[in-house]
Every structure is written in structure tokens, then in C-alpha cells.
Amino acid sequence: MSSKGQQAAHVAIIGAGPAGALTAWLLVRMGIKVTLVERHSDFAREFRGEGMTPGGMAAIREAGLWDAFLALPSEPIRTMQLFARGRRFLRIDMETILPEGVDFIRLLAQPHLLEMLAAKCATFSNFTLLRGTVVRDLVIGDGRVGGLHLGGEGGERSLACDYVIAADGRYSLARKRLRIELEGNRQEFDVVWCRVPRSDPVLPGEAYGFLLDDFFGLAFPAENDHVQIGRIIAKGSYRAFRGDDAEDWKDHLASVLPPPLAKAFATGRDAASDPTLLDVVCGMAPKWSVPGLVLMGDAAHAMSPVGAQGINIALRDAVVLANHLGPLLLEHADGAALDAAAVDFEAERRREVEKIQSEQNQSGAQLLRMQRMAPFIRLVPSGLIGLAGRWMLNRPSTRRFIEGASEIHLMFKPRDPA
């Protein structure tokens, strides 16, 4: 390790999603030089993960960004209604059922979060954001990643750096270049999303789940007073769902919605967004690092949408990775020390991710059981349903979904902007 008087290392981060952007903030404010590479020109594009759980919000608190986060437009989920075959069998008032001290789940459009993180980073002179920049390949020499080959708006060029963090999502170019494949159970379903303007009888803060003969559906608040509706379909059946006519998919969706959503969808049908397909993947890389580079977020462990875990696990990754790499990068540690820290990061995070992914993979069977029980649940007094709901939310597996499966704490102090 070099002396503390030496200039801090230069880190390149691929991907300005939640994982990459929060990691950039944590490292930049330590005094580490960071170049954040983002292939899009702006953040105003379609995002899938908008559910912020208390586990993800804990990472925001640890990063010192809670006040900035609260200033962003978001909507807490205050009620959840569950339907089967068009009839409601459960309504949960989240305020009365959440365990003490647990925050509401918030719906937050990712562009707002990412713009806030980028603006915070930009207050430091040791930060550079390259928008509209594509990573063509990794620079590898003597068995070690030492930079990136870039293209896009800035032209073709190479970027040399001391370490690379790949936060470039489930289809990570870095992971593919390194020939590291995700391993895990094949998922049997995909999700089709669309948005419609919210209208009566759907109220702000309401989320819905509806059980169907095949799979299920869900809906929750979205930005600008909209409702985001998701229809679970068998993997590979999107073409059949879309149909041949431009209106076929709307007819298909409308036919399975419970009454409140059906009415709102009929009102906003002409303003509905085009359907977006989420190819559901749930898997993990067998190793998260090679000399000079570490994978994080969905690049290391693609999460199923079950339980809104993707963005939250990614944010928790950022805090733990900064703990392991930050002090070494600040002191310009040698490559061996950085590589060992990356291995330690994986070991710490793998435990939580394995637990969450295992529970995500079990969710299909649990939903089928709930579907079979729905006619009987409707006969249960609401008071007993409330008690049962409170018990379910306090189960260890449910608490892991809400709060995370491990404690995370930032282990270093920030500095003032340069």
C-alpha cells in the first residue's frame, strides 16, 4: 500500500443506474476520482424498478441522502387489495399492519433518484459523468482489467483507470466479455407492464394484486397520477399476448382486471402506454470479480421482480462495496489488495442475495396456494384477516423482503466538496 499522501486512485464505473450512481457518490465524497459511464444521454427513459423498500431506503440513509430523497416525488403504498376471479378477498391497511418502526414502501420513478445522485456527485471536482457513452470493450493487459474502450457521443477512445466497477445490469457487457454467465433456476414467467392515468375508483396510494387462472397480476401508483399495471404471462408468450391487432393486448388485459382496475383502465384506455416486456431473470454469477474489476447489482445477481428487490439490493450493494474498496482506493492500494477486497465484498453480499433469490423462487408456489384458498379467505372476518396479515408481515422471510436480510452500515466519514 502506498502512503496516504499519494493521489487517490481513479475508478471507472460502468452504468449510472442505482448501483453505479450511489457507489459513485460514496466514493467521490471520500476523495476518490470517479468516472461514471452511462450509455444513455439522459435518465428520462423507461425504468422497471420503482419500489423502494425500507431495506433500500436504509442504504439511502447510510449514504447521507435522506433529506434529498424525501424531497423527490414519491408515493407510499398505503393499502393493498387482493382479488380472485373478480372478487376482493383481502384488503390490508398498511399503516395499521406494518411492524413498528418500519417505513411504507414508496414508489419512486428512477430518473428522479438518478438525477439527484448525479447532481450530488457533480458538486465534487473529482467526478465526471460521461452521458451517451458506450463501453465497447474492456482494456485488459497482463491478466488485469485496466480501463475501458469507449464510443458514442464523445467518439472512440480509451479510458485508463486503476479499477473498474461494472454496474451495467442483467445483460452486463463486462460480464459477457469476461465469459461469466449467470447461474440459477429458469423462470417460468415474464411481466408485461403498461401505465394508464389514475381515475376513480382507484385512489392514490392503493396497490392491487389479482390472482388469475394462469399466474397473476398487480398494479400500483406511478408518477404523474398514473397507475402501473403488470400482467404475468408464461415465458415466451408475449407475441400471443400482443396479438395481431393494435388493440388486442388491451382487450386481453381488460378481460382479467378486477372491477376497480377495469373501470380505471376503461377510462384511460386510449391514453395507455405501449406495453413493455420484462424478461424475468433470477440468477447469480459464480464469481463477481476478476483482477481489476468487480461486478455489482444486477450485473452480479439479476433479481426477479417479486418483492421489488432489484433496486433495493443494488443500493445495499453500493454501501458494502464502498466499505470494502473505498479506503484502499483512497490510499492507492496495490491491485492485489483491491482484488482481495472485491472477494470480501462478494462474500458479504452473497449471503443476503442468496436468501432473497431463494424466497423469490418459492413465490410461485405460494401464489398458487393463495389462489386455491381465495374463496375461503373471503369468508374469514376482517379482524382475523388483519391479524393474519400482521403475522405474515412479521415472519422472518417477509421481514427480509421489507428490511433486507442483513445489517448494512457505512464505515467511513465523508469529506466536504472540493
UniProtKB/TrEMBL annotation:
Which keywords annotate this record?
A: Oxidoreductase
Q: Which SUPFAM superfamilies match?
A: FAD/NAD(P)-binding domain (SSF51905)
Q: Which parts of the sequence belong to the FAD-binding domain? A: 10-352
An example Gene Ontology molecular-function term: oxidoreductase activity
Q: Which domain of life is it from?
A: Bacteria
Give one Pfam hit by family name.
FAD_binding_3
What is this protein called in UniProt? FAD-dependent oxidoreductase
Q: What is the species of this protein?
A: Devosia ureilytica
The beginning of the lineage is: Bacteria, Pseudomonadati, Pseudomonadota, Alphaproteobacteria, Hyphomicrobiales
